[in-house]
Amino acid sequence: MSDNKVTVLDIQQAKEDGRKLVMVTAYDYPLGLLADEAGMDIVLVGDSLGMVVLGMDGTVEVTMEHMIHHIQAVVRGCKAPLIVGDMPFMSYNISVEEAVRNAGRLVKEGGCEVVKLEGGVDFAPTIEAIVKAGIPVMGHIGLTPQTASAMGGFKIQGKDATAAKQIIDDAKAIEDAGCFSIILEAVPAPLGKLISETVTVPVIGIGAGPDVDGQVLVIHDVVGLYDRFVPKFVKQYANVKNVMLDALVDYKREVADAKFPGPKNSFKMPDEALEQLKKMIKE
Ligand code: KIV
pLDDT band at residue 3, thresholds of 50, 70 and 90? Predict the structure, then answer.
């Protein structure tokens, strides 16, 4: 473990100190290295990998095997940030026992330090059991993408008082169950603020406004690498897709025009050896 390894206690301390937490997703070794070098507090190997890496329409099809494979790759590159492994759909929904077993697999086989799962009041017993087994849990409430179809799609949550009150109840229930922090997705900014003030654990927002304890975004959205679906709450800080596309188009043109590889990218052979070889071929 490196000296500057971020721990669950550091995450909790940040809220007490009023320091905003910065979290991003990563799905493989190079992205893990980048997130580490950029000084992220937390790196989430999110099941969003189903969409931005595996080309699925949502996160429902993502399996435990996908998650373990990608967590392992991120862990190899990402040393200082706290690494969170997302529990895929149906890995924690069937029984508490299965949830504990699968949380254990993400930590033991994947190598992440903590797990994240979606759900509020109904999932409090599951969270309690995983925490009791010694695995820290990050909650995820508000818009929960794994069950988005039951919510009528990827829509903002908690817009009226009754729906907002339910999300506050969810936050309190999963805090009481032992979550060390909570992801709050796609809710009105004033509700984000209220929830952050209501619970003592850090609330990390994604589309929850500025008055929460930290922010998380999908790395492909931050760098501009995935444009199939860009939610309103995303800010793209670069357009890496265009940079990569320009490079590929240039490469294609140079090969077609016989400009690549040039002398700089080719290996030499002594003239003598070449002459000898030509003679050998003729014989
Ligand atoms: O899977 C994911 O990337 C997430 C974030 C959007 C928080 O759950």
Answer: low
* CA atoms within 13 A of residue 54's CA, in its CB half-sphere: 18
- Cis before 145 (ω within 30): no
Between residues 2 and 117, the one the model is more confident about: 117
Per residue in 179-193, pLDDT (tens digit) is 999 999 999 999 999
Look up 185 and say whether it is catalytic. yes
The helix/strand/coil state of 106 is helix
Backbone angles phi, psi at 222, to 5 degrees: -60, -45
At 54 the three-state DSSP class reads: coil
Q: For residue 134, how far is its CA from the centre of ligand 1 (angstroms)? A: 23
Q: Does 186 contact ligand 1 (Cβ within 6 A)?
A: no
Q: Which one from 61, 185, 272, 283 is the annotated catalytic residue?
A: 185
Enter the tokens of residue 64: 């435990």
Q: In sequence order, which residues have a C-beta less than 8 Å from that of residue 166 and are 6 or more positions away?
A: 120, 158
User: Ligand 1 pocket, 182 CB below 6 A?
Assistant: no
AA identity, residue 79: K
| Helix residue ranges, H only, the chain | 8-17, 29-37, 49-52, 64-77, 96-105, 124-132, 161-177, 189-198, 219-223, 240-256, 271-282
Q: Is the pLDDT of residue 1 over 60?
A: no
Residue 2 has pLDDT above 60, yes or no: no
150-168 confidence digits (pLDDT tens): 888 889 999 999 999 999 9
Would you state the pLDDT for residue 72? 98
Instruction: Give the integer Cα–Cα distance in Å for 58 and 48.
Output: 7
Pick from 183, 184, 215: nearest CA to 23: 215
Index of the ligand 1 atom closest to the CA of residue 116:
8
State in Å: Cα 18 to ligand 1 middle. Answer: 24
